User: Fold Cytochrome P450 from Urochloa decumbens.
Amino acid sequence: MGPFWSFIQFYPEVFLAIICFFGISIFRLIRQSQKSNLPLNWPVVRMLPFLVVNRHCIHDKVVDLLREAGCTFRIFGPWLLDMNFLVTCDPATVNHCLNTHFEKYPKGREFAEMFDILGDGLLVADSDSWEYQRRVATSIFGARAFRSFAISTIARKVGTVLLPYLDHMAKHSSEVELEDVFMRLSLDVSYSMVFAADLDCLSVSSPMPVFGRATKEAEEAMLFRHIVPSRLWKLLRWLNVGTEKKLADAKVVVNQFIYEEIAKRNAHGSNGSQADLLSMYMKVGLDPSMSEQHKTQFLRDTAAGFILAGKDLIAVTLTWFFYMMCKHPNVEARILEELKDLKSSTWPGGFSVFECDELRSAIYLQAALLETLRLFPATPFEEKEAHVDDILPNGTKVTKGTRVIFSLYAMGRIKGIWGKDCMEFRPERWVSKSGRLRHEPSYKFLSFNSGPRSCIGKDLSLSNMKITAASIIHNFKVELVDDHAVMPQSSVILHTQNGMMVRLKRRVGA
Ligand code: HEM
Assistant:
């Protein structure tokens, strides 16, 4: 007989007491969990069950949790796994971490390692390297030549690729997965903007090009890195198996494409008037202390960053925007009315594509896009790491190394921040009495980040989305396929869980 059975035989009352203690504790924890949205702190595994059980609807669960907890809550991961973090949607905390005490909350090495496909680029850099890269990027994004190249690229892609593709689908009465269409279009646009070369991702006859497949696999692997303990994905990376192998393969493809584009430019030079991003970076004259190898690496990291930075964010925002149009036909009708008197250019096939400058007066369209981003922020959460011990405005203590997660998704859904109607889609909230766009502080509307690390592509993205959305709405009626549920995916980017299936009809007279 083993020692366990001997113990039960000799001390049955002690054994019974232990069983009762655990039984009552578990019963109390379960009762408590039924009354509250706050996760239970179990022995050993701590709050991991909350994350696992709610993994398919984690964004909405975090909203409930933060509503009950008063906007800030500390999540404890299993013992020894270093998964503890603080989650918040409190604008004062956001302002503290991203603006007033910005230097205390860098991205951190863990973040850079998770996104190692971006090398040492602007999106992952900290301190001096970030400052230098931000300066160069700001000057390029502010250059008229780059902006006008970027805008004309968007209009060309919408006129020659997107609208003919949608028209083909409309003529064949085919169901279309709209998010996939936007993902392909966005990759096409980003690649052209960075290299002035066409990938042709959105074609009726050809499959997704190899570069597109590689970026998709890389993104899936980076998502996996976010949801498992870092020790696990590092082990898989070391063994080169699973998603880590796919990521390693994807990196080889991405590098091959980018280095080839850089080599072509080095061999043929770019003419002085070329204004794609690579040409602009080559023209700007990088830090003379950099070696040739370092410069090539810098250009590679920059190109990878700009291709990956915004493309999915634009694609998912457009998807949620059209979902809102399907659900709120009155808003769509008002946008159509607003577009009626605006100038557009006509492309082969008779498609109208709106001009960026004309769309400046389309206030309601922009309000509807901002309202979409409020309820469906393309990055549902953001993450920083405390560089030193700190105290947040609400008195919460933060120790060095704590990961702070800002839930942008929750921020748009809290009454105390946006009012009683916070769950309603109401573009009017963005329009002032005088008919202008209402300004909201970025630490309240965090979709493009706040403070020194605000999104550099904000204006360009809004122009892109306005041109694309206006041109689709004017030319086509988009209808959701019956019974197709559209829900957010639990992901680092707010994709839809099962895509968005629609049917299209060409508008009469368009
Ligand atoms: C709907 C579209 C977009 C949204 C919602 C968006 C949102 C954001 C957010 C939230 C950040 C902060 C990320 C962080 O610190 O972790 C960011 C940073 C950044 N975004 Fe965007 N973005 C969009 C499109 C773009 C585009 C199209 C580009 C470039 C072509 C771009 C370039 C950047 C860059 C370079 C940064 C890093 C800035 C820095 O760290 O100093 N973004 N963006």
